[in-house]
Amino acid sequence: MISFLSVSIIQATVAIATPLFIGALGGLFNERVGIVNVGLDGIMLSGAFAAAITSYYTQSAWIGVLAALMVGALLGLLHAAICVGLKADHVVSGVAINILASSLTVFLLQLLFNNKGQSPSAPKIGQISNAGSIPILGPIINNMSYLTIIGLLLILLSHFFLYHTKMGLRLRSVGENPYAAQSLGIPVRKYMYLSVIVGCALAGLAGSFLSIGILNVFTKDMTAGRGYIALAAMIFGRWTPFGSLGASVFFGYVLAWQMNAQGLTIPAQIVEIIPYLATLLVLAFVAKRARGPAHDGKTFAPGEH
Amino acid sequence: MVHKEALVISGLKKYFGHVKANDGIDLVVRTGTIHAIVGENGAGKSTLMNSLFGLHQPDSGEIYLWGEKVLFSSPLQALAHGIGMVHQHFMLVEALSVLENIILGAEPGKGILLNYKNSRKTVEEICHKYGLELDLDALVENVPVGIQQRIEIVKVLYRGARLIILDEPTAVLIPQEIDRMFEILREFKRDGCTVIFITHKLHEVMALADDVTVIRDGRTVGHWPISQVNEKILARQMVGREVVLDLVKEETKPSELILQVQGLQTEQVNGDQSAEDLSFNIRAGEILGIVGVAGNGQDALIEGILGLRKVEKGEILYLGEAINGVNTSHLRQKGISCISADRLKTGLVREFSVRENAILGYQKSKEFVSKLLFHKKKINHYAQQIIKEFQIKTPSLDALITQLSGGNQQKLIIGRELHANPKLIIAVQPTRGVDIGAIEFIYQVLLECRRKNAAILLISNELEEVLSLSDRVAVLYQGRFMGSNAPNRLTKESIGLMMAGVRTEGEGEPV
Ligand SMILES: Nc1ncnc2c1ncn2[C@@H]1O[C@H](COP(=O)(O)OP(=O)(O)O)[C@@H](O)[C@H]1O
Ligand SMILES: [Mg+2]
Asked: Is B344 on the interface with A (CB under 8 A)?
């Protein structure tokens, strides 16, 4: 008999949802300024790698997290330079980043540790302990990673920034109609660069949770497509922070339930496709109505449009 | 003391590659006046204003604003100097509310937070002062174009502009709204603002302006106080020769029914207005003109007939045969052709040469293909023929289509669409953005087709065009016909009312 709402499922949901919603938030900061980023998965992978090896060498998980943020930001700068500066196709740049990330991490593993599969184990990010006695919430937040808490704060902060500050309004206008924004004196390119860099740094942060949040090692291609699920969560969540969080929790729950269900007599392969099937179905039914920023994926080229 | 000249521009040049968009512009605008700048499409008016507004930098020349020499590297500086601009293509963010659009980039208050309450009050005061009603909470995407224009004006006022530039602002307005706008511009003048009004409609210049400057081919041809010119003089200056837009419209006897549309209802696509129960007939040798504010179902009607949009209800009969759901290329083979509204989007392929564009849509026709390959000689011969017949100026058959001027691109489309002697021609904004010479030519070609017994569905925003070419005119509003009549039995005012959705008594003839 499988339970649909046991403490272990809830805890697993939270653990699985965390990199998704932080990643989705990262995607959101890209797309809100009109830059599509399918390289999210590769950036998460790079973040996971940077976090693990930095944590290993410095013996400090938090310096590892910092490294993940910085590697993410650097890849963001690259993506922005290609899409905004060189006006190249966003998807091509994103795919290139994915290929680069997946091969470079393996190459560096081999170079540094003479091992193509995984890094040595490294210190991991701390988690809440001894909270089990708090009524109701206790069992849920017990063992919750500090990174999950930071992620939740980031969701709140992003919501406040986007909808209650002047810069947030301007940022949203850039992704909707950069020409209008430009005509009102808003420095469109600057917003694009900064927002993409911040978004990609968040993707790096999401990656660090995979390597030193849940586990304590980096393994080859460990994102296993989570970057794409994060993008799906962002779309499902209609490009809003709270929506992305909700969608990530939903996907997290489906994945957690699947892990629980693997003890059943259903063939494992069938169970494994459930979360991906759920993602596809959700997108097929929701994406049609969910409308992203109007200038998403297009090139900003004043004077040529 | 206020400087006598609000704006002085001398010797301004701006080249885009080999295109001399501005090639020596001189302009003097007196403070507190309404100054019209006229010129044909492509004369360089928008380019000039974009240089002034800091959207791009001129190659040479000087700009003085209230006596101070300026050169803006971004619109931010222009805004800070009190210049406000209503662009030819609206600069609005559709997904944001009206209020957000107005305050964007100049949100009130010192801190980093948005304060809608404060800004709402300021904006409401401005709206009240000039009698510009706006629903501040509506999303811009749900607001009709006439109102979008109003938002643009409030945006400019909100920023406290003292020099207000309007780039072809009347293109999207119905006659009554144009009158209203003129009132507002005169009120700006009374308040001491300076207005630059760009247009290619000369009667508007005569009705509104104090001074006028004419631009042709990127150069200033001359400037006059309005009392010293009339429409005829301006037209000659604008085009560089005498213009005769006298159309010879012979009497024809509309004969067989070509197209019958009954109760056409199209699918709703992305918030675009659908056709709602449209019925009409067109006979051979007849031009049916359709007017309406952009976005009132014109696209749905055209795409419905051409099989590009799903028809949910109703019947379309072409030569007595139902064509609902027949695919577009079949329809073209059966003699339906279309001059589409947006040349570079749906009429031509930017990346293709003149030759390739000339056979677009007919690339499978036996005329051009032998076995599997193109019959090069025949294609060349045919393309040369169109070029000669339609007086298209092109460097060669291999030139990219984008190397041609708008007027010549349009003539190529028209040549292509008419060469197979279609029985039904759907002409959508056939003269949009082309010069007067080409307009004359296109009118004559359409009338020639009418004489040769083609049925023509003419859909246009240019009221004069529709009134002078059509045998019957129907007014479209929110996907429905508000009324129809022969053009000589309609006035601009009655059409304007119908375009605004007011059904006038006695105009309700069947279309
Ligand atoms: N960004 C650009 N790149 C290349 N050519 C341009 C650009 N903008 C305008 N032009 C060309 O400059 C000329 C003047 O255009 P424009 O100023 O828009 O004319 P107007 O506003 O008077 O109709 C046209 O031939 C147009 O094709
Ligand atoms: Mg223009």
From this structure: no
